[in-house]
Amino acid sequence: MKFPWKKLRSSAPLAAVSLGVALLPGVVARADRPYAPSRDYDLQNVRVALHFDIDQRKVIGDVTHTLSTLRDGETHLDFDCAELTVSSARVNAKDAVFDLRDDKLRVQLAQPAKSGEQFEVELKYEGKPTSGIYFILPDKDDPGRASEIWTQGEAEDTHHYIPIYDYPNDRTTSEMILTVPANWLTVSNGKLLSVRDAPDGQKTWTWRQSQPISTYLISFVAGEYKEKKDTWRNIPITYNVPRGMEDTIDSTFRHTKEMLDFFSERFGVAYPWDQYAQTAVDDFVASGMENVSATTLATRDMIHAELASERPEAADGLISHEMTHQWFGDLVTCKDWTNTWLNEGFATFGATLWEEHRYGVDASSYRYWREQNTWMQSRELYPIPIVTRDINDSVEYVGNVYDKAGWVIHMLREQMGDEAFFRALKHYLEVNRMQNVVTADLAKNIEESSGTNVDQFFDQWIYGAGAPRFTVRSTYDDAGKKVNLSVKQAQKIEGHVGLFRVPIDVAITTSSGEKLSRIEVSKADETFSLPVDGPPLMVLFDKGDKILKSVDFQKTPEEWIHQLQTATDVPDRADAVFALGNLRDNEPAANALGEAALHDKFWGVREEALRSLGRMNSLPARKQVLSALANDEPWVRAVAVEQLGKFHNDEEIAKRLQSIYKDDKAYSVRGMALQSLATDKAPNAEPFLEKVLATSSPDDMVRKSALRAMGSLGDNTAVPALLEWSSPGKPSSLRGIAIASLGQVDLKNHEITTRLISYLNESSFDIRFAAIFALGRRGDPSAIEPLEAILKNSPLGIGIPHAVENLIEQLKSKATGQNGASASGQKNGDGGAAASNNNQEVLDRLDRLEHQLTEMNDRLGRIEGSLPGGKSD
After folding, report:
1. Across the strands, what pairs with 791?
2. What's the maximum distance between 2 C-alpha atoms anywhere in the chain?
3. Taking a C-beta distance cutoff of 8 angstroms, is the pair 75, 108 a contact?
4. CA atoms within 13 A on the CB side of 419
């Protein structure tokens, strides 16, 4: 699954990090269970027939479970069942007594069962669920939208539309029989067996999944979709989008068949399913979900054909993440949510593996460098192991089970070498094919296939928490012809965080060339003496960035400049770029960054050089940023334009930004010019942005940029325009951005808060989420009760309930502080700075989510406009 907010944003459209995901739906009231329940029976087949009362948003179902009991003496069979009314139950074709309470359906057996006894249990039911199944229908505000019904089972939501055993630790074959309007298309797991006419102008589609899968991976999509068919090695391939979005198919899915080739060969196991369908749905609660053979994706992540050239990796990150799940997560599935990293970590790794293959090692190593810097800064994630049962939802610590886990797999590959590593993955997939696994299974399979004992590696990286925080100093001993390298582990040793034992490559360059030495760091404080043939010109600690860590390595400006200009690996040049950005008044540093921003061979280093120049915010830096506008790649040029917004009260730059908006050929660059005008608080920016709202563009990119810029501008005169564009009747994608921007303007205006609270009741996930984000930005305690209500009663994506809970706590703390400070007990405080200070971690999380949902993965700049974190603590 892949979460929309899980993906890092940068000016270029990098491969998306996957949640095999995306957001997992689930209400906070039902926490995802960290322990797999004991099973009373083995579910063998699920045959479900569904039809719908579309106007009532009702599902009407008939499900038959084929199962066998696992022990003697069973007197009843339990099924997970929520938001459904069961009208009858039959066991082996005979009526049975049943009882439904506390989300459990108990069906009584006529007599105690014997172990291995077979039963067929038929259940008839109906309901109007708020989770698991979603009706996306035209209404008075959007009468032209396509009609859609789609499901989302992860983590434990399948039982909201099918009474079923709903946990990953059992597998079953399945049949999905869907009766829908004749002009609709359906997609489900496995093979399409038939489409036949049904009464009342409908058709019945029958799908069969013949290999056993975990029930959260059962899915269907039905609606007014347009389909493009293809084949790969005689397997049907389909791409499906809501009507009207046909122009996104080729630009989004262009590398699907190449990916299937690559992963089949790299993993050593051929793609294992009967088809591969990819379907984009509106208002999806995630970016993507890896339903077996039938991935579901969000339309917000599709790539408009006219914008494809501005995003060289298109949607490859998302597509490759979900595809990797077809092996890791679907073919082999975690037994419980504690081990979900076996799904998500490998999908994250797989997406970056594809990036390395298709776009080069520079691109993949840059991704790892960025993810490392972001993860190392997280106070929430750092002290928590990847495998922990102290969770309330399956991806509560999403940055661990995705990003850190992907990093750990990357390190394991580096340390084992490709031959042994990929042989181990092949063995793991073959031995556990169609099985459920825990972390110990992977460790065992690695040792079986390669002889490599990974116990110590897993203890510190999977079961332990944190990562090393190194302080490094180097001195040159001329008499002894050696470099003395002092290495300290500065992380606080507590809880699950200990000292690390890691191999480190140290590269020392002298006038005669580079010498690479491998050391093993294992102590809190140690010194390594490395022989050299002369004075060092450059010392690299962990050359190429092979270990997850942070490093405080003090060097002179001249040393950093030399490293930027001569280091061969992208992470080492990026380290130098970041360090130079801290030297505000150093003109040689600015000049070196300017040279890199124009001429470094990899675009990611050029972007980081521009961000460092923006942080410098000096006259020499300004000159270099203006020069870097000559970059050919629009995604690099957009970063240059973004940095221009940091040079405040500069009339020339304000005029230049308006010129860029009018003249640049790239819509992403034009949009960034609007954002920079807002960041700069340029005179007359607000009326200029209002005029821009009349401009049409592909995917409405210009309007989106203008609405987002109005929020950044913070000018209260923008409120009428933002209220207008936030209102029902406007396109949902624009409404969401306008709503988010309302969270940043006129913070004393309680009427805006009231309007935002009203949006929490809308059916659209995107609108509800945007309203949550905006209320968090405003910091108004009057939002506490409505947020508590939506947390309790409305479906939210996985990970979001945790963020909303934190937000509520911060708002309560603020309300308490206000009441203690003022006898008046005013509700209408100026929530601006106080909310920003008190809620920062929560708001950062919501900010990431909001940007992913509203920017459609444009990645046109990081939160706060610069790379969060550096290489030092």
Report:
1. none
2. 94
3. yes
4. 1
Q: What is the mean pLDDT of the chain?
A: 90
Distances (CA, A) of 93 to 64, 65, 77, 119: 10, 12, 15, 10
pLDDT tens digits, residue range 184-231? 999 999 999 999 999 999 999 999 999 999 999 999 999 999 999 999
Contact 855, 672 (CB under 8 A): no
Spatial neighbors of 417 by CB under 8 A, at least 6 apart, are none
Alpha-carbon torsion (699, 703, 709, 711), positive or negative: negative
Alpha helices in 567-684, H assignment, sequence order: 570-580, 587-599, 603-616, 619-628, 634-644, 651-663, 667-679
Whole-prediction pTM: 0.91
pLDDT in tens, 117-138: 999 999 999 999 999 999 999 9
Give CA torsion, residues 628, 630, 631, 634, to 10 deg: 110
Under a CB-based contact definition with an 8 Å cutoff, are residues 71 and 115 in contact? yes
Closest CA to 155 of 3, 31, 320, 16: 31
pLDDT of residue 17: 28
Residue whose entry in the numeric block shows the structure tokens 């269970």: 33
Euclidean distance between the first and the last CA atom of the chain, given in angstroms as a whole number = 32
Half-sphere exposure of residue 778: CA atoms within 13 angstroms, side-chain side: 32
Element (H or E) spanning 790, and its range? helix 784-793
State pLDDT tens for residues 810-853: 888 877 776 554 333 333 333 333 334 444 555 555 554 444 33
- In the three-class reduction of DSSP (H, G, I as helix; E, B as strand; rest coil), residue 101 is classed as strand
